[in-house]
Write a structure and sequence with these properties.
Blueprint: H1 3-12, H2 15-18, H3 24-35, H4 41-54, H5 58-71, E1 84-88, H6 101-110, E2 115-119, H7 131-137, H8 147-157, E3 159-163, H9 164-167, H10 172-181, H11 187-192, E4 201-205, H12 211-222, E5 229-231, E6 246-251, E7 259-264, H13 281-292, H14 298-313, H15 320-332, H16 335-358
Parallel strand pairs: 1-2, 1-4, 2-3
Antiparallel strand pairs: 5-6, 6-7
GO cellular component, one term: cytosol
InterPro entries: Anthranilate_Pribosyl_Tfrase, Glycosyl_Trfase_fam3, Glycosyl_Trfase_fam3_N_dom, Glycosyl_Trfase_fam3_N_dom_sf, Nuc_phospho_transferase
GO molecular function, one term: anthranilate phosphoribosyltransferase activity
């Protein structure tokens, strides 16, 4: 048993009257001790559920991110005129609505906006559709690439994917606890703003509950990260909803940055106000292929709605309407489909070289 960890556990688990918040350094220490197995299973389980009940602070999230920085992987800086976008999407995936983030990534990369995503396989508590399965359905297997090969693909195509089971295996034990507890611990909040990139980054996490925005802002501010976009998206993702007004928080150029509120109503831009339901993975992939082929449909509407916003937010287009028009042009001209083929070739080549090197 770790006496050091026990003292940290006592702080977060002592109730409303006697409990205390962890300092940033203490949160980093607790996170490292859990990832490295220096705390006992009983201590880790107790900490995770107690911390969930109490809710983390922005300072604690910053400390947890410090630990991830120390122990986890990072893709190295690439030459880019724009900050690299890092999408923070829930690791336990989607169960109700069709994800569009991989399509958005292809769209942005097609016009020179680099983007990084991260995640794993089907994970608790939702065991929803993960990003890697969507990419695999499109012909891209991120799961077989060591980090150096992922870096190579990222440099070539402007798209990178940090696959945590291979690139950050230390967090596997946390997922086992999460399954047994049946609840998302504060790690789930922290993952959304984790930045596995060593260069200038624009962090774009999804969120569900309004207080999460304030925690994000504090945590990123403490870590000196000034470019962010917070999206109250579908199932906590970065995908803008169509069935309601999109609530978005934008970083301002102030020092330190504040949150500027943006409300986007789909009907004001000519979109129908409904989300595309998620059916089977195979059906989703077939619909995505239609979008990449420039064919009209409900998922194309979702792709244009999201693509227009992110083209504007990246600075590629001056406003939403021009962003939507540009997104439609990129799909119908075949540029997004061409980016997918480029990515398939890069990943396939990197996988073959990795296999040849191994054997």
């Amino acid at each position: 048993m770790s006496n050091i960890f026990r003292e940290l556990l006592k702080k977060v688990g002592s109730g409303n009257h006697t409990g205390e918040n962890l300092t940033r350094a203490e949160a980093a220490t607790a996170t490292k001790m859990m990832l490295l197995g220096e705390a006992t299973p009983a201590q880790i389980g107790a900490f995770l559920i107690a911390h969930r009940i109490r809710r983390p602070t922005g300072e604690e999230l910053a400390g947890m991110l410090d630990a991830y920085d120390e122990l986890g992987p990072k893709l190295q800086p690439i030459a880019s005129v724009r900050p690299v976008i890092v999408f923070g999407l829930p690791y336990d995936g989607r169960t109700r609505t069709a994800p569009i983030a991989p399509v958005t990534a292809l769209l942005l990369a097609a016009v020179g906006q680099p983007i990084i995503m991260h995640g794993g396989d089907r994970l608790p508590t939702k065991y929803g559709l993960p990003l890697v399965d969507i990419w695999l359905g499109l012909g891209i297997d991120w799961t077989s690439l060591p980090l150096a090969k992922t870096q190579q693909v990222f440099e070539q195509t402007g798209i990178g994917f940090v696959y945590t089971p291979v690139h950050f295996p230390l967090i596997k034990t946390i997922w086992e606890y999460r399954d047994q507890l049946g609840k998302r611990p504060p790690f789930a909040t922290m993952e959304l703003i984790w930045c596995p990139y060593a260069g200038d980054a624009h962090i774009i996490p999804g969120f569900v509950h309004p207080p999460t925005e304030a925690m994000f802002k504090v945590a990123l501010g403490l870590r000196g990260m000034t470019k962010f976009t917070f999206v109250k998206g579908l199932e906590g993702s970065c995908d803008l909803p169509r069935d309601r007004t999109a609530i978005i928080g934008l970083s301002t150029p102030d020092a330190p940055p504040e949150i500027e509120r943006l409300l986007l109503a789909p009907h004001e831009y000519g979109f129908t106000t409904k989300n595309v339901a998620l059916s089977s993975t195979e059906e989703l992939i077939a619909e995505i292929q239609k979008v990449l082929a420039g064919q009209p449909g409900e998922l194309m509407q979702t792709a244009l709605w999201n693509g227009g916003f992110y083209l504007w937010r990246s600075g590629i287009c001056p406003d939403m309407r021009s962003g939507i028009a540009k997104a439609e042009e990129l799909f119908t001209s075949g540029m997004v489909a061409a980016k997918l083929q480029e990515l398939i070739q890069a990943v396939t080549s990197a996988s073959q070289k990795s296999f040849q090197h191994t054997y």
